[in-house]
Amino acid sequence: MAESISKKTTKAFRGNGKFPESELYQCVNCGFCLESCPTYIETGLETESPRGRISLMKAANEGRIELTDNVISHWDMCLQCRACETACPSGVKYGFLMENTKLILETSRRKTFLKSLLWYLGILIVNKRSLLYMLGNIIKFYQKSGIQLAIRTIGLKHLLPEKLKKIEQNIPTISTNFFHPNSKTYMPSSNAETKGKISILAGCVMCITDSQAIESTIRVLTRNGYEVQVPKDQQCCGALQMHSGYKNTTVELAKKNIDVLMSNNPDFIVSCSAGCGAQLKTYDHLFEEKDDYYEKSVIFSNITKDIHELLVEIDFKKPVIAIDSTVTYQDPCHMVNVQKIYDSPRKILKSIPGLNFVETTQRDMCCGAAGTYSITQPIMSEILGNKKAKVLIKTKSHIIATSNPGCAIQLRSSFERLKTSETQNVPEVNYVIELLDRAYGNGE
Amino acid sequence: MIIISLNSDKNKEKTYSWLVMLKIKSLVEELAHVVGADNVVWEKEDLIVYEYDGSIDRSLPLAVVLPGSAAEVSKCVKISNKYNCSIVARGAGTGLSGGAVPLKQSLVICLTRLKRIIEVDEKNRLSVVEPGVVNIKLSDAIKDKGLFYAPDPSSQKACTIGGNVSENAGGPHCFSLGVTTNHVLGMEIVLSNGEITWIGAKSRSYTGYDLRGAFIGSEGTFGIITKIIVRLMKIPESVSTILAAFKSMDDASNTVSEVISAGMIPAALEMMDRITIEACEPVYNPKYPKGSEAVLLIEIDGITESVKEEIDIVKKICTQNNSIEIRQANNESDRVKLWETRKGAIGAYGTIAPTYYLVDGVVPRTKLTEVLREVKNIGRKLEVTIGNVFHAGDGNIHPAILFDGRKKTEVNQAIRAGGEILEVCVKAGGALSGEHGIGTEKQDYMRLVFNEEDLRAMKKLRAAFVQTDKNVDVEKFNPYKIFPRGSNDDEIYKLNDPEFYPTGGEEWA
After folding, report:
1. Nearest CA of chain A to the CA of B298: how many Å?
2. Which fold has domain A185-313?
3. Structural domain for B151, as ranges
4. Which residues of A touch B13 (CB under 8 A)?
5. CA-based nearest distance A364→chain B, Å
6. Complex confidence, ipTM
7. pTM of the model
8. Architecture per CATH, A2-106
9. DSSP class per residue in A44-97
10. Mean pLDDT of the B207-218 span
């Protein structure tokens, strides 16, 4: 049975116009990507490198190998951080190749019943907002009621299997209040004329883990003279689904988001999460020219801005309230490698009075959060998280600023782990936009 | 070139008999006992990613082992002796001559886990590193001490120093500072019997034979390097780089000759032709002026005053030779930008064709103009696209033949073109390889330069390093490389032959 499935898949991999061959064979095997890949650096194994993964795609495409669990595990080990794309001299679209590979795998991957059930539930939760809030409430209850404390201190934890233990450690702290997109219009705070209209995509995870950052985004934008809406029926951006190979789901979500977010004719669509922003900006890649949504998606992607990018472009109001802390910025991969935004968050941080901005080393290294990666590959994720946390601690910063919920969750839990094992003061993790909001006086 | 093309039927995975499988299994188990199961790669699919390096040739290894220390390397060698299998040492696998491609179904010893910088001696300006240290990581680590490691191959962001030593790698800045052999003082090596020993030392004077010199550039055929003592250089006080675009290759080549005859030794002197420029344009977006047929990159370093003076002279020479645009970089970020295109040029060929064959000939600098013209003619005659990006200062040319490795006719044309270019180089009084090594790529052209007598002498040198016994033959390390196939000992290579087993043939079957 397994044999027949994998045979079929290799065939699917084999051209037939399905796999983008011209992009695949753009890789000339030079190996420049190796040292940009976090999993290669960690393991030293070619199988866990971008060149190795592309070679496996080529081998599958040429029918030299079957899609065994072993082969798939190497593709699954990929963070999709796309740091290799910045190192590639041939301009290989690695992220695109990986998405196509996952697409083929998803239709044919052998999964245990439990695994497929979990995947189904996971996708359902991010797709359905009500379920997401329910999960948020369950976790909140788990954390606030003392069950978590009990499990962690009494040692019940040791009864859990290794993988589950790691996942338990990574459960993010849930915000006290969730953010609900409600279509309310937030007017510019000064009485001056409105500069323009903005629709915000609030994201899904962010609404339950970092609602304060969304609120900050709204306040910062209104202070800069914009009329802001967070349309009610908006969906998840679809990044997690796309990276796991669920293209159809992603297309459906994209269609709904295009309709909902563009309903009030905004000048800009803004995201305050690097991962969501990267996905929104590539909505036009989801459709072909003959599709109804193609034109709309092109306009949509063109007016989508990352919050930091937009603020710098409109020459944001300079904050006046000092934050006397040493701060470093952690580049989310989908911010720097995909959206190519490097300077803007730094400019915002440097504009805050009193703030001592320091750079960290290994800026191009992924923190290991990478969307669902911390759940599907908890062991590698933890190794990379610890590595990143140690580098960041070396900067002696009080605050680590970032701009992506995945990174924020990962950094917090990595610092938490290091704190218990090495008992030291660890920095706080904040969003850049939160700091700017604070320096504006939190809207007061 | 051996060319095991991607689609050739011969490269279909070999099926071993159950007896051989049993032996491989037991070999893998013994290796895993030494280095840990996570550090042995043996599954059929995984071995596919170890069949290549940065070149065109491909061949599957028997297994891959990643030791974590010199002692473990030694143990792995001893185990391999027991099983009669040959060994290929591998770093990052970015080489361009097939040096790390495991022929003869060898066991690959991959040294990427040995990546510690063991010592940096600022006063004596030397450092002890493990072979898996990535070239640029060493320079990065000592930058704040005002030091750097000079050899800088274009792949320096990924290639390892161990690989550099084995191939005696060069780089743009080797024009004034010398290639790898000028920067290595000594190394710890593991011999064929598993013995760990040192050749060379921290001091620069030796008594006795300079074995270090013999070992560097031996392409892994003598033994396995496990530690390297390298010389460090002081970062020059001032560096200035200019980029000059020309409307013809001849103008650019003349500029090169004139710069050098004016008595200057630039830190680097690099040239790119139109095809290379076109390949780089979409990736790096350097926006070279329209109609540029050649671009020169000239870097001058030294004391601030003299750098200024020399740069002015260079600029004047460029203008006299009809340069259409000159750009100058005086700060680090502008310099990096100018260099980015040059260093990524080879990979950027991927925007034109899926496979490249990078020739590595050397010609006397004065013959550059005419050799380049010949290269162009060869390209026209055989109807292949040839890009040129090279170290003009050393006369080390890199014509890149661009083709599709999946198409057999194109592969054959490319190989023919490569051979003809090398013949032109040798006729002009040059050499087969400037910095990439011979490997599998150029082994069949060795006779253009050496006669049987020479080859035999080289084999004797190898035999002095590789001690043979009943289990170890002279092809123990990196077998079937460098020497031309079917040379005086009548070794008939049985590559791709499904009946062909690692050393000992019958014993395995």
Report:
1. 22
2. Rossmann fold (3.40.50)
3. 117-234
4. 64
5. 14
6. 0.89
7. 0.89
8. Orthogonal Bundle (1.10)
9. --GGGSHHHHHHHHHHHHTTSS---HHHHHHHHT-----HHHHH-TT---HHHH
10. 91
